[in-house]
Amino acid sequence: MAKFAFLIIVSVASLISTEGTPAIRVVGGETATEGQFPYQISLRRNGLHSCGGSIITKDFVLTAAHCVGYNDDDDKFILHDPKTLTIRAGSTDRFMGGALVRVVEIIAHENYADLLNDVALLRLEDPLIFSKLIQPIPLASSEVPSGEKIVISGWGRLEHGGDIPRHLQWNTLSVLSRSECKDRIPYDTDALICLDHDVDNGACNGDSGGPATYNGEVVGIAGFVTGGCGSSYPDGYAKVYYHVDWIKKHSNL
C-alpha cells in the first residue's frame, strides 16, 4: 500500500519544512511574479518557513491543521504556542519583503485526525493592510468538476528530498473525481480534493497548508502526497467547499 506523507517542514518523517530540514516546494513548477498570488502567505515557526496559507480576511489566514500542532506520545493533538508563529504576506521571497505579522490564536478543526478535517485558522495580532500585493481570496462557492485545472502555489521542495526555493513557485494540476481518486490511492472521502499531475510535478514538503485555487477561489488546502513528491500518485488537499461552514463559523466572514 502506498504511504502517505504530510507536506509540512519539520523533520525527515514529515513534509513540513524548516531551514534546517529542506521543505518541499511545488515540484516541476514555475517561479511566481510579484503580486501574482497576493493571498499566499508563508507560515513561520520560530522564524523559519514551515507551511503555506491563504489570506481570507484582514484578520484570518486559512491553513492545514497539521501545520499548527503535533501528536504527543499518547497520540493527542497538541497545538503549537501561537507566540512561536508569524506569517509573511505580500512577498514572493520567503526571506524578506512584505509584512511580517504575529499570530495570536490558532483554531484547529476539533475533529482533526491524521488526514481528516486537516483545516485550521490563524488569527493575526494586527490586521493586514490590503494592497496590490496583499489581498484576501474568496472561499470555494461550489464543487470543482472533475478534469478542471487547479493552480497550486508554495515554497515546498523542488523535488523529493531536494532544495527549498527562496521564491514562491506555482503549478497547474487536474481535479480527479472521488471514484477516480479512490482507484489511485487508498483513501475515500468527500472531504478531499484529489489533484492529478505528471510525474515530477505536484506539491512537496513546505507546501502544506497552501492554496489550490480555481476561478479565483481557494478550493483546497495542501495536505499530503503519496509515494513521495512528484510520484505517479495524486496529491491530497482538504476540500474547502466541504469545510466552508466551519471556516465561516470560526472566522469573521
UniProtKB/TrEMBL annotation:
One MF annotation (Gene Ontology) recorded for this entry: serine-type endopeptidase activity
Entry annotated with the keyword Disulfide bond: yes
SUPFAM superfamilies in the cross-refs: Trypsin-like serine proteases
Keywords: Disulfide bond, Hydrolase, Protease, Serine protease, Signal
GO biological process, one term: proteolysis
Gene3D superfamilies, per database record: Trypsin-like serine proteases (2.40.10.10)
Signal peptide region: 1-20
CDD domains assigned to the protein according to its UniProt record, in alphabetical order: Tryp_SPc
Domain annotation Peptidase S1: ranges: 26-252
Domain of life: Eukaryota
Family listed: Belongs to the peptidase S1 family.
Name of the molecule in the record: Peptidase S1 domain-containing protein
Organism: Glossina pallidipes (Tsetse fly)
Taxonomic lineage of the native organism: Eukaryota, Metazoa, Ecdysozoa, Arthropoda, Hexapoda
